[in-house]
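Quick one - first record:
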Amino acid sequence: MVVYLKSKPHANGTSSSPKIDVPSIVQGVINDIRTKGDSAVRSYSEKFDRWSPSSFKLSFQEIENIISKVPKQTIEDIKTVQHNVRTFALAQRESLKDFELEIRPGVHLGQKNIPISAVGAYIPGGRYPLLASAHMTIVTAKAAGVRRVVACTPPINGEIPSSTIAAMHLAGADEIYILGGVQAVAAMAIGTETMDKVDFIAGPGNPFVAEAKRQLFGEIGIDLPAGPTEVLIVADHKADPTTVAVDLLSQAEHGPDTPAVLITTSREVGEKSIKEVDRLLKILPTAALAGVSWDTFGEVIVVDSLNEAYELADKYASEHVQILTEHPREALEKMSNYGALFLGEKTCVSYGDKVIGTNHVLPTKKAARFTGGLWVGKYLKTVTYQEVTSAQESGELGVLCGRAARAENFEGHARSGDIRANTYLGESFGWLQ
């Protein structure tokens, strides 16, 4: 039995306010940048960010001057967090092995993992300086072996976000631009007179940034489709309602459209958690955003058993799934659809967002059903190669290829096999006469 103590006020969980035609606006910006290059980039930067310096790219000296203004403790914290991210990313890279096997005598098949040559990292600004996004996108790319990383971040209220620049530089960015929005994504993807194009773009952003990545996908690669942050908590009767409430609101403060869901086996925990959320929203400095998300997208659901809770949570396929139960590691076996799991009350989603070392660029809008989040493997091209050194095996493969190709009416393919069967086995074919 499923009981909703709190459900979304709208049937689809969305606002009834008029919608902006984001795809059309984004397409117009991309088309302008494609035809006008830097002049269009500058025009849109002036329009959207009121930012038009002589050069959007920061020089090494400018970077050094900006970083010198960042508090020493912030620099040390950046280095600590980036060490965690780098350590985990390098371990991921080490797990991806190149290999070669001899599938038959003289027939060699191999696999190589080759880093993408040039990557763009988009570091959002908007409401807050998002240092962590620099760690997740740039450090991970460099751990994968990417040679050139271009990093873009917008100004915040007309100012350069110095701490973000420090994070980008210390992460290993090769080029840093104070440039945001669609114009940044399009400039990186298409290239302009002053910015060489990249092959892949990673990083979160607002709906316009996400739509720009979607429209440019195919011309360049992207990490994954991105939507508003999501959090789902699975809790049993032993969960602390205050912890539940705090952890739900910690994600709801990302913006006004964050789904925050509690699935619990305890009606008491559910009811007390709702009361705690209401109490905390009266004192939380970011309540203006978090409260809108909670009112519009917040849900509290009571189920009969943890198995039912895990099954329902899998249907949500949430970006962040936090397990506040007596035996949290049980979720590793019971669940399969999530961006990332956070196991036990000593762990929280905010650790994953900011400091612990796993990547926080994760699938949203149920994309966790078919993909994981950003990781070192996203920056690698897994390619294969083959070599036949045995004449006998090449001839026998030629005979097999001829039959297999003709079963599909691919005569040209068949003849590639025929000629090797003829050369190495002496097989006769009418077309060779």
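second record:
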Amino acid sequence: MAKNEHDQRYWLIELLAYWEGRVNVSYLEREFHLSRQQASKVLGSYREQMPDNLDYSYTLKAYLPSACFASRFISGEADEYLQWLQGIPRHHLQVARLSSPQRQILPHILRPIIHALTFGYAVDINYASVTNTTEERIIAPHSLVLAAGRWHVRAWCLARQEYRDFVLARTRSASVDETRDIPSPQEDHAWHTWVELVFAPDNRLAAERQQALEQEYGMTDGRLIIRERAALANYLIKQMGVNIKFLDALPEAQQLVLVNKRDIEQWLY
């Protein structure tokens, strides 16, 4: 990660050019709160240092990575881009994060998907299912999702004729397909539908423990209401540690229950 102000700005230029396939002054204005003139100077300064990296597209009004693009300020690793995308705050305070196995997402997999997301194309992928069988799929991605500790891409699956989530780490290969007619992301009904999930302490817990949970989650009248996209409801339930298939014999094992399961059942699996 860049350490000084100039390197930080050059880092973002390379990050956007490498992963998203374009960068312009508007990105720098927003990210660093610069005027248009200041942002133009930053891009100009970068091009002086790396004259062969960017080509200007008058059609897109943006700089694109050249055929001989060579990164100097970024690592080129997928996690670098995904962490920036996630917007993890970095504080001067000491922060500990739970270590978990890193699911490998290779740059040559992520870049075509980001390109397709940016320009509205389809992607031809080789995808490994949970049964470890590999299938060729053509998908039309519209969003990246970090859920349940994994990065997914939300996409229209041409084979299944439905919107599905694909785990990036299970993708074996990916190539952009500019020839396909793809549906508008607005047609993803589950993505554009918002639902309320209502959680409450398991009533089998002692009253003191229920009160502690109400305070912990900032509940009102013993209820925690979270509004989320219907397409992501299952991930949220998993994140809350709630099992909707069966009630654990020990209430301490789950602590919370989903109160309104029947109301949102059509979105659950």
